[in-house]
Amino acid sequence: MRVVYAGTPEFAVPALQALLTSGHEVVAVYCQPDRPAGRGRKLTFGAVKQVAVDAGIPVEQPLSLKAVEEQDKLRAYAPNVLIVAAYGLILPQVVLDIPRHGCLNIHGSLLPRWRGAAPIQRAIQAGDTETGVTIMQMAAGLDTGDMLHKVVCPITATDGGQSIHDKLATQGATALLHTLALLEAGKLQPEVQDDALANYAHKLTKAEAQIDWTQTAAVIDRTIRAFDAYPVAFTLYEGQPLRLFASHSLSEVEGNASPGTVIAESKSGIDIATGEGVVRILSLQLPGGKRLTAEQFLNGRSLLGVQL
Predict the structure, then answer these.
(1) Helix (H, G, I), strand (E, B) or coil at 126
(2) How far is residue 23's CA from residue 177's CA, in Å, rounded to a whole number?
(3) Per-residue pLDDT tens for 210-224?
(4) β partners of residue 240
(5) Distance between terminal CA atoms of the chain?
(6) 3-state helix/strand/coil string of 35-104
(7) Which of 51, 91, 135, 304 has the largest CB neighbor count within 10 A?
């Protein structure tokens, strides 16, 4: 099939690479405009654009798809299907109607469980034991279209936002090719979403990344792991943000130390009292420093007894 692919960040790369090695013809790639990055704030290609450029595929980077001229440009590519993965632009109905088979979305959750901007992180934060990828027929509503294919991914106690992101990106590529094969064979069986089971995965903010040590160890642990790639959980240490990347809940450990007190430290981690139970920090970073394991961090430095 003639495919137009719309995606921008790393999450969308495996599916594009899978399409490029499949029998489908990727006739154009759409992605967000280049953004300044790094210390020099130099305009930098997004991950998907780089793959497209390397493959010699035309790249389009409109600010919006609401303009008629942009819609005509897309129409000129005559796509059979438009694949969307973390693209970042809203597609108006007129665009959804351009491809003969409409637009398919690679969504990072088991719909309708989490709709919206941050389904991976919200699933971990909520304590879900599984998530997954849903290939969805796009509709005018927010992630409300019919479900075409699902793949389940367990969430373990050591998973974080980045690890689940990477797993779902890979699973999404496989799921997409499977869905396209069913589409070509006329064997798709769309399933309508039950809106009553839907939750909104709110966009992540830096403000919510500051740890409230009066919460339970289980909640704090899930927050640290969910935010390990962005926005990264933190606590204040000597007035500066101390970033926390990996943790483990020791809910069975009880004590009378006030929440936020460092009650133990070892090569295994830094144990901090919470409102209920203890959180063991496994990886952390001081401002201007490198990300370190707890063992590396404690080399020549002690936090024992510190109130965070």
Answers:
(1) coil
(2) 10
(3) 999 999 999 999 999
(4) 237
(5) 57
(6) EEECCCCEEECCHHHHHHHHHCCCEECCCCCCCHHHHHHHHHCCCCEEEEECCCCCCCHHHHCCCCCCEE
(7) 135
Gap between the Cα atoms of 196 and 191, Å rounded: 15
Is the pLDDT assigned to residue 251 strictly greater than 90?
no
Contact indicator for 62, 70 with CB cutoff of 8 Å: yes
pTM for this entry: 0.94
C-alpha span between 66 and 169 (Å, rounded)? 28
Dihedral sign, Cα of residue 79, residue 80, residue 83, residue 89 = positive
**Interacting residues of 20 by C-beta distance below 8 A, sequence separation 6+:** 26, 51, 55
Could you give the CA distance from residue 125 to residue 3 in angstroms, rounded to a whole number? 35
CB 110 within 8 A of CB 135: no
Which spans in the chain are helix H? 13-20, 47-55, 68-76, 93-96, 119-125, 161-185, 217-226, 294-297
User: Do 295 and 236 touch, CB atoms closer than 8 A?
Assistant: no
Distance, in Å, from the CA atom of 136 to the CA atom of 193, rounded to the nearest integer, reads 10
Q: One-letter amino acid identity for 151?
A: V
Cβ neighbors of 290 (< 8 A, separation 6 or more) are none
Based on C-alpha coordinates, what's the Rg of the chain?
Answer: 22
Q: What are phi and psi of 26, to 5 degrees?
A: -85, 110
3-state secondary structure of 141: coil
Distances (CA, A) of 230 to 65, 92, 121, 204, 290: 28, 29, 9, 8, 16
In terms of Cα–Cα distance, which of 184, 186, 155, 178 is closest to 168? 155
pLDDT digits (tens, 9 = 90+) for 72-107: 999 999 999 999 999 988 899 999 999 999 999 999
Q: Is the per-residue pLDDT at 255 higher than 80?
A: no
254 has a pLDDT exceeding 90: no
